[in-house]
């Protein structure tokens, strides 16, 4: 490990240790899945079907209900068994991920053998390998979008707040004019969050999946163009900054979406739409000042998480560009390595 990095530097200590960095990532995935499973079961143990869901401080059960699990007419929870199964499956799978992470972290080889594991080995400065990795991630994200499409069309459907029932979406909107009209503000004043029907929601996910998978395949089979090489810094620190910037953007979009949209985030599960108020910093509150709904704290949590992710993006971007925070200036060593 890099002895110049303190313990709280996290994965920065593993920058050049591909085996241990892989283990850290797998273990991190296990922690995320473990949280999802444990939190679902905890929420289930506290859930009161006689009280409005949005008043109970829940986060995962409302998302599962929106996907149509265990929901009847009027948004009534008719069965909590699907919540239990989903939570349990996450707990079980987290154990396998955790074991995989420990296996790689405790391996006697700190670096993956490029001859034995060419698919997983990498070099930060290998631009072709880096774009291949981003392509693989894009394909996986596209597959995730298709899972929601499959749930909506073939596996029970989604909760439709307009009809107050769960239904399958048999005719998703595929018109690019409609779907991309949201992106350019042609469908309403709330931009992407103006979507008000499940056909457009599912159609949008189909288009997202197509773009992600096509983009992923493009990055896998091609090499970076010469004109792109000077646009980016090709280092582990730079890739981290790019990722944090993307997460921050998604967090801000999610903040706005959960605040004003009542189709993807039905009022019966999340509470009424919020008012966005501007002061020294923006905050999001319910029209009823006495109500702190699931929507209220979910929007505020997304905003602050996105805010700190943005700070992380800036911090790592400066370090990638050669700025030394201990010296308070761009170091000569870093500047020469970038030139």
Automatic annotation (TrEMBL):
One of its GO terms (cellular component) is plasma membrane-derived thylakoid membrane. It is a multi-pass membrane protein. Coiled coil: none annotated. One of its GO terms (molecular function) is chlorophyll binding. It holds the Pfam family PSII. Keywords: Chlorophyll, Chromophore, Membrane, Photosynthesis, Thylakoid, Transmembrane, Transmembrane helix. One of its GO terms (biological process) is photosynthetic electron transport chain. The chain crosses the membrane at residues 21-42, 81-105, 134-159, 206-226, 238-258. It is found in: Cellular thylakoid membrane. The keyword Nuclease does not apply. InterPro entries: PS_antenna-like, PS_II_antenna-like_sf. This is Chlorophyll a/b binding light-harvesting protein.
């Amino acid at each position: 490990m890099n002895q110049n990095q303190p313990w709280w530097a996290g994965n920065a200590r593993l920058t050049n240790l591909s085996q241990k960095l892989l283990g850290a990532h797998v273990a991190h995935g296990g922690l995320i899945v473990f949280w999802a499973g444990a939190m679902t079961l905890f929420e289930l143990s506290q859930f009161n079907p006689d009280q409005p869901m949005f008043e109970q401080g829940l986060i995962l059960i409302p998302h599962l209900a929106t996907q149509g699990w265990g929901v009847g007419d009027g948004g009534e929870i008719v069965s909590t068994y699907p919540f239990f199964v989903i939570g349990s499956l996450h707990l079980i799978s987290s154990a396998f991920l955790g074991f995989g992470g420990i296996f790689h972290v405790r391996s006697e080889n700190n670096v993956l053998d490029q001859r034995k594991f060419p698919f997983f080995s990498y070099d930060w400065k290998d631009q072709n390998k880096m774009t291949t990795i981003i392509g693989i991630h894009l394909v996986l994200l596209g597959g995730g979008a298709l899972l929601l499409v499959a749930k909506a069309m073939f596996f029970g459907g989604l909760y439709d707040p307009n009809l107050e029932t769960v239904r399958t979406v048999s005719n998703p909107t595929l018109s690019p004019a409609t779907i991309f009209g949201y992106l350019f503000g042609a469908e309403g004043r709330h931009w992407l969050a103006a979507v008000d029907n499940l056909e457009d929601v599912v159609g949008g996910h189909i288009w997202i999946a197509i773009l992600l998978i096509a983009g992923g395949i493009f990055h896998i089979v091609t090499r970076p163009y010469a004109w792109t090489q000077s646009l980016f810094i090709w280092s582990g620190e730079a890739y981290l900054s790019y990722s944090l910037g993307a997460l921050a953007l998604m967090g801000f979009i999610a903040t706005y979406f959960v605040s004003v949209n009542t189709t993807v985030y039905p009022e019966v599960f999340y509470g009424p739409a919020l008012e966005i108020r501007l002061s020294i910093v923006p905050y999001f509150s319910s029209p009823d000042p006495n109500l702190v709904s699931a929507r209220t704290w979910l929007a505020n949590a997304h905003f602050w998480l996105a805010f700190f992710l943005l700070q992380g993006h800036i911090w790592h971007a400066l370090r990638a560009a050669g700025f030394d925070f201990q010296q308070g200036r761009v170091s000569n060593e870093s500047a020469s390595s970038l030139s």
